[in-house]
Design brief:
The chain contains 22 helices and 21 strands. It is of the alpha/beta class. Bound molecules: adenosine monophosphate.
Length: 570
Amino acid sequence: MTTFAEIGVDSKIIKAIEELGFENPMPVQEKVISYLMREDSGDVIALAQTGTGKTAAFGLPLIQKTDISVKHIQHLVLCPTRELCLQISNDLTSYSKYKSGIKIAAVYGGASAETQIRDIKKGAQIISATPGRLNDLIDRGVVNLSKIKTVVLDEADEMLNMGFRDELESILAETPAGKNTLLFSATMPNEVMAIANRYMKNPEEITVGKRNSGAENVEHVCYMVHAKDRYLALKRIADFYPEIYGIIFCRTRYETKEVAEQLVKDGYNAEALHGDLSQQQRDAVMNKFRIKHLKLLVATDVAARGLDVDSLTHIINYNLPEDLEIYTHRSGRTGRAGKTGISIIIANLKEKHSLNTIEKQINKKFKHLPIPSGKEICEKQLFYLVDRMQNVELNDTQIDSFLPDIYKKLETVPKEELIKRFVSLEFNRFLDYYNNTPDLNVPSDGGSRSRGNSTASGFTRFFINLGKTDDLKPANLIGMVNDYTGVRNIDIGDIEILKNFSFFEADSNYKDKILDGFQNKSFKKRKIGIEIASGKKGRSEQKQESGNDRKRFKRGPSRDKAKQKKNYKH
Ligand code: AMP
């Protein structure tokens, strides 16, 4: 097995990383580090997921190449979120523990700039930064990138997904032509390739695993249900895996709140993470999740970025992301650091086409499993309880003094009855709930409730600022889609009329026509606001959720339970 010394890492760094438990380089480290340690090394494109050890892959060479006698910025790491930015600066600080004279600063939005400016002025040689705040500091004359030797674009696809393209370009324009650029990305969409072509010179392409493939040790599972049964299916899945520790991904912050609130009401250890929370609230939820005081985190993609947890057992796609490339990011959050994981999709029949696209993307097939029946869940939970009982640590000294009285109280109850009673105490909740629960599985042809001739190309979900208070009815929405687009036969999917706003789905082929058609229109004297209510969000909203310094995107109230959900076709 290759050692860090063999690929050129110096002994002081090795001492520090050994303390962190790094014994041998991970595959991406072996390839990237040995290349960067070469005299003639140049630009690098590395296709690597989070959790593959990429921070050390670029971090160790940066530290080793830092000239401690010089007190200006030599290396810049750009990344999409505040959380990742802090994690990178903390990791680099740990790696350089025994290299005195190295200063590392973190520059990110959502926190006071003053401390960051002070750290830079103290002579930081390495900066880890989010693009928004770094641009501000460049504009204020605090950061000078004219002498840097390396720029790392970490999670480049995420930065572009979040709308940081302009910021990235203006930062790169400040850097000298002779620098090296290292680009790390989990996926390689055209937008990332465009950046690479424009700003990199003959990059060395390093791929760990297959291009755009899902992590090797992740199993991809699909449960097919009717859309209306999504939540019930989620509960069954959560109950079927008693040791679940995972993230449930939703498309919008509204959905995130609703699912989390319902789970809490139903007795699950869950909480929501989304952009309506303050940074402090987000940090609190993330910390609770990190230390496993929370088993299920219900999150939007943007809010979950930067949350770095290695031991997730499951990822659940409550709804698929609109941009299917994001599935790779979601699933890559499990099966990390050598562990195995399961990435689950709760899908309905009209999403079959999307599933095929994802399968091509990850280069793996989904395992289609039936939603577990009540009986199967009860069996699983029961044996989990028995296992826990078998393995529980007995605190003899604490319990012993109570035992004589307890024995006396229970002396007439036979052993079999005693076991039955203890099990029932814990287990009746499941037995009651799952007594006579229906089968949630859909027949493969979609059964009688199939949407029949709905387009396989998929639907786009729209948010509109009209709701019950405007007396909006499904028929009004359908009428407006017809009238404002001038097209009479656009397929409409689910319509959810909430109190002050609503969601509706329509054939994705007419996405732009609908957005354009609804511009500058009013309904009962109220100006209509419409936007796409899914994964790929408006820039201001994404940046807000990611903890960067942008204004909040305002829309109606955060919560509304009165929900009307049907499938419509006209
Ligand atoms: P990253 O992809 O950089 O976020 O790293 C994922 C996880 O792997 C982190 O918890 C690292 O501390 C850990 N890690 C990175 N390199 C190694 C290594 N060579 N040996 C063991 N663990 C590592």
